[in-house]
Design goal:
The chain is of the alpha+beta class. The protein has one domain (3-65): 2-Layer Sandwich (Alpha-Beta Plaits). The protein has helices at 12-23, 50-59, and strands at residues 3-7, 28-34, 39-44, 63-65. A four-stranded antiparallel β-sheet has the order 2-3-1-4. The chain is globular and about 30 Å long. Bound molecules: copper (II) ion (CU).
Length: 66
C-alpha cells in the first residue's frame, strides 16, 4: 500500500478534500489519511504516476512532500 506525505492538512475538511481528490484518480481506492502524521495511504489497482497524484493534490491547495 503506497504511502505519501502531504503538507497543509489542518482539519477534517482538509482530510475529506484530499480523500475525495485521491479517490477521484483512476486506479486509486481505499484512501486512508492520518492527519497527525500528514500521511495518505491507498490501494492502487494499476500504476498511477506520482505526477498525477501531485497535480491532483496541488489542484486543491495541498502539497505532496517528496
Ligand atoms: Cu482543514
Amino acid at each position: 500500500m503506497p504511502t505519501i506525505q502531504i503538507k497543509g492538512m489542518r482539519c477534517g475538511h482538509c482530510v475529506a478534500s484530499v480523500t475525495s481528490a485521491l479517490n477521484a484518480i483512476d486506479g486509486i481506492s481505499e484512501v486512508n489519511i492520518s492527519l497527525e502524521k500528514n500521511e495518505a495511504s491507498f490501494n492502487q489497482s494499476n500504476e498511477v504516476p506520482m505526477d498525477t497524484i501531485k497535480k491532483a493534490i496541488a489542484a486543491i491547495g495541498f502539497e505532496v512532500i517528496d
